[in-house]
Design goal:
Strand order of the largest sheet of chain A: 4-5-6-7
Oligomer: heterodimer
Strand content of chain B: 15-25%
Number of strands of chain B: 7
Shape of chain B: elongated
Order of helices and strands of chain A: HHEEEHEEEEHH
Structural class of chain B: alpha+beta
Radius of gyration of chain B: 27 Å
Helix content of chain A: 25-40%
Helix content of chain B: 25-40%
Structural class of chain A: alpha+beta
Amino acid sequence: MKLLVLRKLHRWVALVVGLQLLAWSVSGVVFAWLDHHGVDGEGLVAAPVSRTLGSGDVGVEPAALGLDPAQVGALSLQAVNGHWVYRIETARGVELRRAQDGAPYRIDATVARELAAAAYRGDGRLSTMHFHDGATVETRTAGATWQAQFDDATGTSLYFSADDGALVAVRTDAWRLKDVFWMLHTMDYRGRDDFNHPLVVVAAVAALWVAGTGLWLLVRVFRPRRDVPS
Amino acid sequence: MGHRWLALFVGLQLVAWTASGLYMTAVDIDVIHGDALVRNVAPPVRLDRPLVPIAEVLRGRDDVVALHLRTLPDDGRAVYELVDAEGRRSLLDAATATVLPPFTADRVRALAEAYYAGRGRVAEVRLLASDAEIPREVRGRRAPLWRVEFDDWLETTLYVDAGSGRLATRRHRLWRWFDFAWSLHIMDYREREDVNNGLLRTVTPLAVLTASCGAWLVFYSFAFLRRRPRAQGVS
């Protein structure tokens, strides 16, 4: 009798979360069979060539940049697009200043195009450049970006931060396919990455219930002594 | 019956998937990452003190590919952090341009205490000198790395980069459980990172089959009961 109640509860909960159980298992198949090298766009991007910083590259010292000393959270000297620049983090964001003369170095369309050409190792050609002034579904929390779209078979997009020129995302059609199923998997239909919201937790509890009772019913049914009509 | 036999075969894994999934969704990822266990230690860069010009620091050197001006969190000293092509980091006192000696265990303890925001105390400080000594929980990290264990109930462990003194990463009990849950979830029990492994590729389609059979049974039985509500008390 208790098993009958359990079986009913198993069915009713399964009725409610049935579609999500299917969505989870189908997306699981997709994750398992989609080659993660293709999803990550491996081989499409060259490792950045590290240039050696010389004494003559620095024309202006940090103290001479005219920064508010109380505002600077981090300060680095690094190569961006073959130029030595100071990368300065303040509460207002990130800015680049040329190490040679202290002038602002902006990641404009021309610089972004050069960054894309230097980074790309695929067999396509750059087709379009787009500027995004905020987050997109393909860049998540990366802020303002330049999108370099290539005409290769994998639909490669390289995204560069509009703040400091860093390569922030490599996206391919395989990634886009995976991301749709990732959305179904996390049940975060807006941002796609949040897997700690109440809906998915409740669904997970229900799924554990269905799987647990299902397994329990199964074990009981396979026993020689049957007290459940079947 | 097909549903049952299949489900018995993958039933255990279904329980593993849903249980590990529940753990990963129920515990906030910021808690897993231990955000509350460390202070956001980036002391402001001190530009108001006299520093040795960078041009002078670089004179005669040809191994620097990036440079950071930082303030150390424990003693507040301004330092230049030099990065070479291999990613190795070394520190220079920015006020005198003298090379800082490698961190001692006592100094690493002081740094770790500056990074740590919990209530425990340092239990052990150990240098991981070679890549072979890197624990699996931080696989992919490079030696030399300091491992600092605290005696709190979360078994917090801070990893401090030996070259730069930066907080490289941290681990604690809930994070380790998350790692374990993840390994169950992707069925890669050793390396815990290969989502394309053969086992997962085999069992996931069976899960789809089980869920489909189950869904069909549920819908069928409910439809059956609706049509002939008093036929039998069996499901």
